[in-house]
Write a structure and sequence with these properties.
There is one protein chain. With about 240 residues, the protein is an all-alpha fold. The chain has one domain (about 10-235). The protein is built from 10 helices and no strands. The longest helix has about 35 residues, at about 150-185. The relative contact order is 0.20. The model is unreliable at about 1-25 and about 220-243 (pLDDT under 50).
């Protein structure tokens, strides 16, 4: 499951093209296939046994946990890059993780999940629904509750789990590796439409074990199918237009 991503690199806003021309078209296609196979294999090898044994990942519970599965795409990306372009490719992929000098519009895009959260809380308040307690924001699926104040947990766990484990584990692979290579062959829109179902299907076992998506019923997988393309700036903005 994806958590909130709020860094510019998490939204694929760096220019992906400098690294792509180094890869010939044939080997580039093979590298993409290898990445998808490895990403699925590494992540599903952790999640599917949990699903088969009917284990459920719940908030505030340290076991079972789904977090190791979130590293599958990142590990797959570094393995394929190491095999195809060696140290130079690894350095380029690592450099783009910390890229932050982008236009102010992309900083707004990167921080947009916070705006959506504010709208959701405001809507619940206007509708007379019960607002979540501050301590509830410190409860994460697959992570044991620590008893720290909710606001402190929101900052600490939000940074560690959201930015490092959740965002980096997925985004390095899907947007840092796969999307630039797809954009080297296709338009940004077509590349995103190709990546979206591959990314969504990767989440399928997570819908079976993480309690939140399980409660959402049939809408859970459909959300996973539409969100990856819809939240991708590459759908509406060419990758070189970063100013």
């Amino acid at each position: 499951m994806s958590t909130i991503q709020t860094t510019p690199a998490a939204f694929g806003i760096s220019d992906p093209r400098p690294s792509a021309p180094h890869t010939p078209p044939v080997s580039g296609g093979r590298a993409l296939v290898a990445f998808f196979v490895l990403a699925y294999a590494l992540s599903w090898a952790w999640v599917i046994p949990l699903a088969v044994t009917h284990q459920v990942v719940d908030r505030g519970q340290g076991w079972p946990t789904h977090y190791p599965a979130l590293f599958g795409p990142a590990v797959a990306a570094f393995l394929v890059v190491a095999a195809t372009t060696g140290r130079r490719g690894i350095a380029e992929l690592a450099r783009r993780i910390v890229l932050w000098r982008v236009g102010w519009r992309w900083w707004l895009v990167a921080s947009s999940p916070l705006a959506f959260l504010a709208v959701a809380v405001l809507g619940a308040w206007v509708s007379g629904l019960g607002l979540p307690r501050l301590a509830d924001f410190g409860l994460y699926s697959g992570v044991p509750a620590s008893g720290l104040p909710g606001f402190l947990l929101l900052i600490i766990l939000g940074a560690i789990l959201g930015a490092i484990l959740g965002a980096f584990g997925e985004e390095i692979g899907w947007r840092g590796f796969a999307l630039p290579r797809l954009q080297h062959r296709f338009s940004p829109l077509v590349a995103s439409l190709i990546l979206a179902p591959m990314w969504a299907l990767w989440h399928l076992p997570l819908f079976l074990v993480v309690l939140g998506p399980r409660r959402s019923g049939p809408s859970g997988p459909s959300q996973g199918t539409t969100l990856p393309a819809g939240r991708d700036p590459a759908v509406t903005r060419p990758p070189r237009d970063l100013t």
